[in-house]
Each structure stands twice: as structure tokens, then as C-alpha cells.
Amino acid sequence: MRNLHLAATGAILLCAAAAAAGTAGYSADATQSSLEFVGVQAGAEFKGVFHKFTANVDFAPDALAGSRIDVQIEMNSVDSRDADRDTTMRGKDIFDVAHNPTAHYVTRAITKTASGFSAVGTLTLRGVAKDVPIDFQFVPSAAGAKLTGTARLKRLDFGVGQGDWKSTETIGDGVKINFSLVLKPKT
Amino acid sequence: MPNQPPPTRYSAVAQGLHWAIAALIVVQFTLAWSADDLPLGARKLALLARHKSFGMTILMLAVLRLLWRLFNRPPELPPGMTNIERQLARATHGLFYVFLFIMPLTGWMMSSAKNYSVSWFNLFAWPDLIAPDEQAFNLLKAAHDTLSWLLFAVAVLHILAALKHHFWNKDDVLKRMLPFNKSEKRS
């Protein structure tokens, strides 16, 4: 009960902070949002998704200084449409979910670009924190907003791929991330 | 053309395709057997990637070979063969053409079903033939495996028959598929 009380107070404070910064607070609707990665194996792309993630977004196009995107990903929810590969990816040499069950991305600075917005943020993946830039579009709607975008990262920067998997001959180093977040206002 | 006598030797193109494909099939068995013994890892993926690239090469050569065969008359079977022997020879050759298409195609579909798209020596990726589906993959793998053993058996029969013609019957059946053998002049 006390915890609930604290959480409620925290939420109110967050909303107040967002209001002060001139941004609106959103959270992603998990059922409609998607987080996809595109890797390269033997010269051909393969796609997978993370089914479980939470995204909290404070955003207003005219208050970028106070805007922020914060995404928490459950690495165990990886799905590349092949159970064998998923099991391998959860293992020690790739995501090591036993020791690093979640990945976290939070933006530090958001700027306007010709086609939308770009952000610099820190991705913490497999226990390694490194900057990853993202490009995204923010489209307000009656029910909230839609935030779609892309990122590119190098898996080996985060130690994703130990032992034989360090070789980029078969599994490419570069990974594309595509995300589409359907945002609902926080109440 | 209808009045021309049939050639006594296979053309250089037919010979080239025959021996190139034969060599590639040997490579394919070697790669597949080596990969089968490995756990899912970078090395297995590398071997299978090569297996797929060679498989697609065989498929492309098979198209050329079928076209060549349709527009170019092969030498006739030597006289003295019994009716059964002739039918067996034709069936074996017909089966090879079936294998040259069905092996790469089942392999290609297997890759699609497991969401491992096929590339050609890392140069470009082939489109997926079917959507990822574990059941379909298991079925296709069983088909690909079984067909590979049938191909193996037919190849053994084919080689034994060629040797029998050469050493037992002492006819030119083997020689006319061998380059650098001009003892039999083309008529």
C-alpha cells in the first residue's frame, strides 16, 4: 500500500515535471508497438523482434530540451522466427540474458532535423553502455501520438557475440533497429 | 537438323555442365555432412551459407543444362543395349534432371521456412519462397535429406553404369563425356 502510494506520488511528480518542461507524458501501447532488429547472416538480412518492452516518452516538438525517450527491453522476449536461433541468442555468447535480462535506452539530447528529429542517447546492452543515435518521426494523433524511427549500431561494440560469434564473416557487425511506438497519454 | 545424324560425342557445353555440376554435387555432400556434425554456431552457419551458395549455383546451371538439352540432341545410346538397359539409362538421366531442380528448391524453401534467407556468396540475397514456419521446415528438411540419399544412390548407379560400359562393354559411353579424348571424331 505504501509502495503504491509512493508510486502514485512519483507519477504525479513526473507529470508535474513534464508539465513544467512543456512536454506531454506518454507510454507505449505494447500491443500496437513494435521493436524490430535487422541483422545480416551470410550476406542476407534476417529480422527479429522483441515482444516485451516498455517505453516512456516525454515529448513536445516545441520543448525538445525537456523531451526524453526511455525504453526498457526484456531481452528474453527475442523472437527471430526460429526457436533454435532464439535459444542461441539468449545464451552466454550473444545476449547473455541470464546476467543481462534487460537492455535500456534513454535519450540525452533531441534535435530537430529536416525530416523529423534525431536524438543522442545511451544504450545499455549486455552490460555495456554506449551512445547510439536515433532518427525518428513524431506524429500526434487524436488518441496520443505515433513515434517511428530507426537506429544503427554495431553489435560488437556491446560484446554481442563472443567466441566464434566475434567473427563478422558470417554474422555482420552492423544491426539496424526499426521501432514503431503507439503512444498513449499518461493519466 | 532433322536429317543430320546424331552426334557421337557430347558437346563441349554439355560436358562442361556435366562435370561442373558433378563436382559441385560432391562439394555439396561434403559441406552438408560437415555442417550436420556441428552445433549451431558461426562455423556451422558459414558452412551452410556456402552450401546454399553452391546450391543456388547448381540451380542456375541446371536451368542452362535443361535448356541446352532441349535444343541439342545428345549422342545415341550404343547398339546392343537391351530394352531394359535403355529404359534404366533414360530413367536415371531423367531423375538427375529432377534432382538438379528439386534439391536446390527444397533447400531454398528450408532456408525461407527457418528465416535464414539465402545469399549468393554474400553478393546478393535471394527472395524468400515461403514464410517462416517450423512445421514446414521440419517437413522440407526431411524431404531434402531423403532426396539427398536417393540422389546418392542414383549417382552410384550412374557411375557404376559408366564404368561397366567402359570396361565391360568397351563402348564409348564414358569417353564421349570426357574432354581431351579426340579418338572418336565428331561426325
Question: How would you explain this protein's 3D organization?
Answer:
The complex is a heterodimer of chains A (187) and B (187). Chain A has 187 residues and is mainly β. Chain A has one domain: Lipocalin. In chain A, 15% of the residues lie in helices and 50% in strands. Chain A has helices at residues 2-21, 83-90, and strands at 24-28, 34-41, 44-50, 53-59, 68-74, 78-79, 102-112, 117-125, 128-141, 144-154, 174-185. An 8-stranded antiparallel β-barrel of chain A has the order 1-4-5-7-8-9-10-11. In chain A, strand 7 (102-112) and strand 8 form a beta hairpin. The radius of gyration of chain A is 18 Å and the shape is globular. The two termini of chain A are 20 Å apart. Chain B has 187 residues and is an all-alpha fold. In chain B, strand 1 (119-120) and strand 2 form a beta hairpin. Chain B has one domain: Fumarate Reductase Cytochrome B subunit (Up-down Bundle). In chain B, strands 1-2 form a two-stranded antiparallel ribbon. Chain B is built from 4 helices and 2 strands; from the N terminus they run αααββα. Classes of the chains: A mainly beta (187), B mainly alpha (187). The A-B interface holds A 41-47, 80-85, 88, 164-165, 167, 169-171 and B 40-43, 45-46, 48-49, 52, 114-126, 132, 134.
